Amino acid sequence: MLTIGEQLCEPPIRHLGATPKAAWHQAIQLLSEVGLARGDSLMTRYPHQLSGGMLQRVMIAMALSCRPKLLIADEPTTALDVTVQAQILRLLRDRARASQMAMMLITHDLGVIAQMAEQVVVMYAGRIVEQGATALVLRHPQHPYTRG
After folding, report:
1. What is the pTM of this model?
2. Domain ABC transporter: where (predicted)?
3. The domain 4-117: what is its CATH number?
């Protein structure tokens, strides 16, 4: 099993050609940016030693470690309590804006969609059944699945 530090350092080393030392410093900086103070103390810990909210933040740091232009977040707040969910969503939104990164958010939670998305695509049984501006789709849903 890899430590948090090993998992955070591997992508920039492999994909960006970072040195291990530079990747280590970048990982600590990313942990700080995602709201995990004292990131240096987390680097030697293992995933099972962290809470669910901390793990989500580490995963976001890992996803951001190679500076993507598009972040695909698949159910990023599942199994988190409401307070941590709000923190994670705010973090994702702020990071996307700060780095001019596009984000595709996959979720079953229409409340999350209302809060986070400008555009929405609703899928049912593997097919797109509705799409458009989030406010319009949520105010005037056309498909029974969207209506709930």
Report:
1. 0.83
2. 13-78
3. 3.40.50.300
